[in-house]
Structures are given as C-alpha cells and as structure tokens.
Write a structure and sequence with these properties.
InterPro entries: PROSER1 (IPR042616). With about 260 residues, the chain is mainly alpha-helical. Helices cover about 35% and strands about 0% of the residues. A two-stranded antiparallel ribbon has the order 1-2. Strand 1 (about 145-150) and strand 2 form a beta hairpin. Helix 6 (about 85-95) packs parallel to helix 8.
C-alpha cells in the first residue's frame, strides 16, 4: 500500500515544535523521532532546513528513511540540497535511494548528479544509484559460449552462418523476463483466486490424481476381494497404521473369525 504524506495542518504543528525548540539540539531530534506519519520530499526538505547542525541533519535523514513517500529524482533533489556538506549528501542519497521512482532513467540520474559539484562525488553517487538496480537481465547474449583457440581460432556453439545461437536479437528480447507474451498454461483457470494457505494446491490448476486412484490402499482394491456392503468411509481406506486400525481387512482376509474359518 502506498504511503500517504502527513496532512498539511499536522505537519505545520510538527514543524513549529521543532522550530521553536531552542533549549537543546537533541530535543529537536527527539520531537522528530516521536512524531508519526509519512513525509513527502517537500516536507522532508523543510524539516532538514529546520535543523542547523550537519551531524543532526544526517541523524534526521536516518530517521526519515523508513517514513519517506515515493518520489522522483527531481523531488529528491530538494532533500539533498538541504544538506550543506557534499560528503553528507552521499550518505543521504544512500538513505533515500529506495524510494526513487525514476532512478533508472537518464533524466533521473542527471537530477541526482546535478547536486554534486565534484566529479568524484558524481561517480560515487552513480554507484549508489546502481545498487538498487541490475542491468544483467537487459543484456542479450548473441551467440553461445565461446572460447579462444590457437592461431586465432575460436571455439563456439554457434553453427556456421548462424551467429546467433539463441535466435535473432528481436526474439531474444521478447523472451527476456518482463517482455513479450505472458505464457499461461492452457489448463490454468484465471477466474480462480489462489488459496490463502501457502501449502495448499493452487485452485487455478486441475487437481492431481490421488494415490488411491492409482494404487489403492490395502484392503480396498485388488486382491483380496472387496468387503461386501456399502462403501466404508474414511479412515476405512487409509493405509494400515497398526494391528487393529487402517483398512477394513488389514490381514487381507475379510470376514475371518478367530477360529480361522471364513463364514
């Protein structure tokens, strides 16, 4: 469920309490820590501006990390610019990177990198953004596994005149995770909802053939003959678990009395 930002009137009360606290710097952080609700980018930047010391700004960012709403990189730029020290901005970026929605786009990266004036900080910021994404699945392997041989030769799995072992690049792109047609088994029924119990079989697929229909439990099918009369309910068809429990004829001879005669 998406987080909803704190209402404007409630946020104003919180901001006034922090702004009017002049006895101790730690009390400002205590007020923020004891507050409730979530904050958007504008509210978070205003709170950081209300705290003057750089060390306290980092503590405030750590407090705000689990309480931030989803935001774009342009909005997150306001939070980073509220911090004066450039190295502290990298620490703040590491705290807010999980709530960014467009960090994987070029425009989003440019908004984040524009807050860092030095080239080394830009590279570090870009490395921080890459920790919440992976480009491995977006790369397409053109051929198969290749190995170098002597005299400039090449060992490869691709056949002659077929440099793309796994098909054309367009077909490979459609087979990538998240692309192409969604493959659903023809026997699956989409109208069924999955069970709330994780160990229960899925309702979307036809039920499995039970063991009893394949092999049957002792005393119910096959040799010896069935017990005459109405069908015996469970646990009459269960496997024998002891001398006196289990199938209707655990020993294999129905209607056998204690004297050994079949009546």
């Amino acid at each position: 469920m998406a987080k909803e930002a704190l209402a404007a009137e409630h946020f104003q009360v919180l901001y006034d309490r922090i702004q009017q606290e002049t006895d101790s710097y730690n009390k400002k952080l205590q007020i923020l820590y004891a507050s409730r609700g979530y904050f958007n980018s504008d509210q978070a930047s205003v709170l950081l501006h209300a705290i003057s010391r750089p060390a306290d700004k980092l503590k405030a960012v750590k407090m705000l990390e689990p309480r931030l709403c989803r935001m774009s990189c342009q909005e997150a730029r306001d939070i980073l610019t509220a911090i004066n020290i450039h190295n502290d901005r990298l620490i703040a970026l590491d705290s807010i990177k999980r709530v960014l929605t467009d960090y994987q786009t070029t425009v989003g990266e440019e908004y984040i990198l524009s807050t860092f004036p030095f080239e080394g900080d830009k590279k570090t910021a870009l490395a921080i953004l890459r920790t919440v994404r992976s480009d491995v699945a977006d790369k397409i392997g053109a051929g198969g596994h290749q190995g170098y041989a002597s005299l400039g030769g090449l060992y490869t799995q691709a056949r002659p005149l077929h440099e793309h072992l796994y098909g054309s690049l367009a077909d490979q792109a459609l087979r990538m995770p998240g692309h192409g047609k969604i493959e659903i088994p023809p026997t699956a029924q989409k109208s069924y909802y999955p069970s709330i119990y994780t160990g229960h079989p899925s309702y979307a697929y036809p039920p499995d053939v039970p063991y009893e229909e394949h092999h049957g439990y002792p005393g119910t099918v096959g040799f010896p003959a069935r017990v005459e009369g109405p069908s015996i309910p469970y646990p009459g068809g269960a496997p024998p678990l002891g001398n006196n429990t289990g199938a209707p004829a655990p020993t294999g001879f129905p209607r056998l009395d204690s004297r050994g005669f079949v009546y």
